[in-house]
Write a structure and sequence with these properties.
mainly alpha; MetI-like fold
Length: 278
Amino acid sequence: MRAGHGDLFVKGASYGALTALCVFMIFPFVWMLVSSFKPFPEIFAGRTFFPQEPTFANYLALFERYDALRKFWNSFYIATTATVLSVFLCALGGYAFAKFEFPGRKTMFAVMLASMTIPFAVLLVPLFVMMRNTFGWIDTPWPLIIPGAANAFGIFFMRQYMLSVSDDMLDAARIDGASEFGIFLRVVLPTALPGLASLGIIFFMASWNNFLWPLTVLRSEPMHTVPIMLNSLQGPPGRTAFDLLMAGSVLSVIPMLVVFFVLQRYLIAGITAGSVKG
């Protein structure tokens, strides 16, 4: 009985600590949502946590004064295009490293993994010069889509997942006369759907939240993305438009939540399957 009471106490304490941690983590988002419906003077000077006179004026002003709809479209187009292209190319690379033997495979894989240790800040200036002088892509979406289309993390992630794909299934498809690219499209991709969805969530969120690189290459205001728009709402001390900033922050979270909730059932399956076989 004593052991049972001890286990019950430990379990209750654990649940209590986790609940407190969840409340601590969620509270800033709740405050952001509530503040987005408050007039500016009420955000910090209000006497109640909830708005005394809820208003949608902050959201309307955001779209009317800062052309937020265009910014959201820019972010959505860039994030979606970059995610689809990156997931496809990383799946190709991961499939090649997982299922094919070719000269220098281990060396190439080691070099690719080593490239993950290079900070992006080191590549920022040479990459900007390349985008400007070689391709002429400054102030276009392409620098945010093409350079990271086949990145080392994505290839490594998909390679770990592709190791769990059955070789017998691939051999059966070859016996039936399918081409290697046909096997990849018709057999490998459907089998690897959880891994693709997991990687897609990671890439979409990273692209949607990207700030430094878009700030560097997107010069004109109509080409700006959501993070740049939110940064433009910040002013000197005492001059930041917190009412509009809270409204923009709430809207910026919604697309990521939608993507996550739509694909969440694949997330755990995709991440854990890659650890089955090394």
